[in-house]
Specification:
Structural class: alpha/beta
Shape: globular
Mean pLDDT: 93
Strand order of the largest sheet: 3-2-1-4-5-8-6-7
CATH superfamily: Vaccinia Virus protein VP39
CATH architecture: 3-Layer(aba) Sandwich
Helix content: 25-40%
Low-confidence stretches: none
Radius of gyration: 18 Å
CATH topology: Rossmann fold
Order of helices and strands: HEHEHEEHEHEHHHHEE
Number of domains: 1
Number of helices: 9
Largest sheet: 8 strands, mixed
Strand content: 15-25%
CATH class: Alpha Beta
Number of strands: 8
Amino acid sequence: MSVYTTEIASDKIPSDNVIHQRLLSAYYQAKPYIKGDLLELGCGEGRGVEILAPLAHSYIGIDKIKSVIENLEKKFSKYKFLSGVFPPLPFEDNSFDTIITFQVIEHVKDDENFIKEIHRVLMPGGTALITTPNIKMTLSRNPWHEREYTGDELKALCKKYFEKVEMKGIAGNEKVLEYHERNRASVQRIMRYDFFDLQHRLPAGLLRIPYDILNRMNRNKLNETGDELVKSITVEDFDLKPQDEQNLDLFCLLTK
């Protein structure tokens, strides 16, 4: 995946602000669970390193984009970063007290092996945190995703390897939901031209470029409404809630 797709929301692009704040909120919600040696699977451009790494005894971030890892090594020299594709994970059994993996599992082909590997490298008594989009709130097919989950589907997958699985969710307040509904209406206007339901019929590889173009155009349009809704949304507008179909993202807590 290119660093420059709309899959990686940037804090430097104004129209990405709502997505950026939504993704950032997961790191703040994760703070009470961080302890000991921390592993982040799919660290991306390091959105949450400064938030969580200081709370841990040690931090390792791993991502498949080598250039991103090289930049992180320069920016955060006291932490360790690796470039690689997973699963499997290049670590010994029982290596980490805490594992976080935010907005990653939907990109992993072998999701069951991914959960199995998280269980293997997690210390007994350790905690793993997973976030992923809630398919119940998805507005269109995302060709960058292998699949998306309901809360019950992700819980059932994790239950194969973890006895203790708690499902929560990242929810937005009224401002966030207003943005979501504007987004929904805008996406529906675009999708009305998909007469043959090509978004579900065509291979993902053929859809990624048009998806990114339309997604960027849509975000820019929502940002140009003039009422500054997009600009005004911060991490404070998101919260961790009990499992609900209206949550924007699933937030799954696993204990070994």
